[in-house]
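Deliverable D2.4 — example input (structure tokens):
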């Protein structure tokens, strides 16, 4: 055999391999260069992977070169060819190459074994498939859902019709959706069918199909909508929280947040609506008449209803969701929204009340209804109530004072930018019922306006010779006047308490309670957007969202009970620790670690470390 024949054989075999590749350029790769040149080019191109082995005639290198080039370019031909070096036959001077598909056969065999394993019959217990530390297992231990049967019993017929789906199954499905932020009920049906933990929590079998999404919607429309079942579920969960001592009731925080309605902000129309008269106007009119009687003036004639805030007005209404309100406040997103007014307790951040209104309604307007609802649910009113600066007005302060509640309300700094003196330059003297100007002159009460403002005037002769006359008031006026609301005393008391050390401490907890509750609801439970149309559906969504948040507080209380037991025990024995770990699997690591350390040596340090009591009892 001539010396060039192995090279020619290699070139022929190389071209045969190239026929299987896509692209004509690879067909004539290295047609006339020797093996050494090919090897150098491959090294320069960086396509060669690994160290080549020494073999006869270079056949092994050529086959490896083709594989390395294919791997480097990530182009695998269908039915990939694996090259295998065969032994040199007798009487011949070259190598024989066999084409086999071992890798593909191995993969098929592996997949076949997996499929066959999945088709095997197994005997499993569904209870054992759910981990002990799963959230739904904790929820099932902490909350008793048997009350759902009592709530829904009057809505079902006992001796007529087809057998109905268990109402507890329906509401457990809804709670799973709100707990894990599944916004679509069709998606919720799929999740319950695919997730074993969801099925276990809903009381379904392993192969049992979950109720259809239309079943939930039809039950809502036909049975639950007009009966406030969602609100009753929230009330029962709140009752269980109160029974376990999670609600203190001394300090409450109220605030509102906007929820985007399921409506296009461009689909709207201008309509005329009737305004509801302000609830406090009758009380304010009585106070104004009393002031004018003291001054020897006759009362105002109030035959018209304009001063009470009634009458007709024009507003933008959504054609998709007419019950929502257009929000146009500064710093808030434009569009149609709902406002959720939420009240939480300071002890464990348990939600004690939820109130829904259109977003175009002022935040302070529904506060009297909110206080009545709180009194019904808790049986009493709080001693302190924290509110943000949006509630900083005289009517709210007067309302809280009348209810016996100490308000803790945020305040805004003065933003007076006119060239003349603002009201903050004048100091009120309650003893003389007069204001004192910067020149130490008195301004006395002369009259009370229809809107409820007392007007204090300085003597015109005094203002005429005042050296600060041009700085105090304009040229068109002859004397300075300062107004004070008839309920300003209540607001001053609130401001003074808020600035005290106790008031600052109570107000500082607001961002840790109500603001955190809103953030949790929007981020984790889908409260950022309304799921359905109408204010009744929005109430259902808000009450069920608040219910699952309170359920999480009930779950956390079981672990907190374990920490309290650990903190109060002077010494933990090994047997008792093992028993606690079985009762409370979530605290197993902490109990085991503390048992290895030899027990609790300092109970006071343990209390400070593991017990975080945020509520403060000022009673």
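Example output (designed residues):
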């Amino acid at each position: 055999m001539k010396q060039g024949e192995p090279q020619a054989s290699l070139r022929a075999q190389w071209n045969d391999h190239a026929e299987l590749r896509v692209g004509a350029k690879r067909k004539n790769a290295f047609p006339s260069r020797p093996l050494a040149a090919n090897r150098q080019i491959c090294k320069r191109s960086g396509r060669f992977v690994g160290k080549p082995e020494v073999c006869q005639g270079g056949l092994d290198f050529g086959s490896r070169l083709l594989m390395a080039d294919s791997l480097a370019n990530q182009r695998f031909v269908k039915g990939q060819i694996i090259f295998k070096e065969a032994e040199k036959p007798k009487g011949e001077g070259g190598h024989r190459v066999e084409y086999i598909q071992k890798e593909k056969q191995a993969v098929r065999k592996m997949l076949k074994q997996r499929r066959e394993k999945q088709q095997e019959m197994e005997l499993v217990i569904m209870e054992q498939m759910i981990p002990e530390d799963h959230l739904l297992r904790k929820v099932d231990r902490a909350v008793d859902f048997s009350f759902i049967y009592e709530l829904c019993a009057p809505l079902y017929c006992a001796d007529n019709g087809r057998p109905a789906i268990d109402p507890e199954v329906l509401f457990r499905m809804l709670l799973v959706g709100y707990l894990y932020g599944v916004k679509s009920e069709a998606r919720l049906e799929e999740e319950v069918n695919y997730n074993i933990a969801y099925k276990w929590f809903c009381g379904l079998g392993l192969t049992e199909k979950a109720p259809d999404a239309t079943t939930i919607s039809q039950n809502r429309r036909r049975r639950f909508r007009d009966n406030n079942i969602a609100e009753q579920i929230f009330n029962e969960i709140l009752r269980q929280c109160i029974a376990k001592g999670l609600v203190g009731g001394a300090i409450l925080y109220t605030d509102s947040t906007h929820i985007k309605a399921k409506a296009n902000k461009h689909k709207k129309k201008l309509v005329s609506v009737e305004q509801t008269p302000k609830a406090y106007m009758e009380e304010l009119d009585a106070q104004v008449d009393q002031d004018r009687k003291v001054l020897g003036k006759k009362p105002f004639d109030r035959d018209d209803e304009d001063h009470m805030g009634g009458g007709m007005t024009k507003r933008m209404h959504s054609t998709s969701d007419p019950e929502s309100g257009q929000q146009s406040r500064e710093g808030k997103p434009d569009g149609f929204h709902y406002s959720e007014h939420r009240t939480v307790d300071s002890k464990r951040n348990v939600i004690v009340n939820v109130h829904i209104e259109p977003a175009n309604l002022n935040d302070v307007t529904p506060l009297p209804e909110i206080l009545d609802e709180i009194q019904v649910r808790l049986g009493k009113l709080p001693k302190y109530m924290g509110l943000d600066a949006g509630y900083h007005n005289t009517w709210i302060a007067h309302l809280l004072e009348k209810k016996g509640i100490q308000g803790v309300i945020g305040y805004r700094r003065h933003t007076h930018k006119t060239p003349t003196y603002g009201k903050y330059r004048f100091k009120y003297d309650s003893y003389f019922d007069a204001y004192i100007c910067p020149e130490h002159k008195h301004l006395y009460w002369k009259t009370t306006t229809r809107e409820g403002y007392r007007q204090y005037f300085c003597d015109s002769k005094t203002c005429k010779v005042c050296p600060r006359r041009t700085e105090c008031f304009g040229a068109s006026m002859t004397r300075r006047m300062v107004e004070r609301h008839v309920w300003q005393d209540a607001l001053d008391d609130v401001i003074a308490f808020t600035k005290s050390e106790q008031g600052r401490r109570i107000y500082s907890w607001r961002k840790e309670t109500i603001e955190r509750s809103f953030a949790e609801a929007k981020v984790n439970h889908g409260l950022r957007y309304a799921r359905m149309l109408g204010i009744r559906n929005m109430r259902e969504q808000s009450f069920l969202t608040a219910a699952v948040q309170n359920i999480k507080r009930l779950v956390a209380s079981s672990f907190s009970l374990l920490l309290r037991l650990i903190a109060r025990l002077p010494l933990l024995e090994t047997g008792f620790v093992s028993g606690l770990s079985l009762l409370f699997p979530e605290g197993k690591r902490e109990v085991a670690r503390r048992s290895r350390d030899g027990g609790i040596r300092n109970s006071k340090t343990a209390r400070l470390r593991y017990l975080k009591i945020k509520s403060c009892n000022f009673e």
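The chain has a mean pLDDT of 75.
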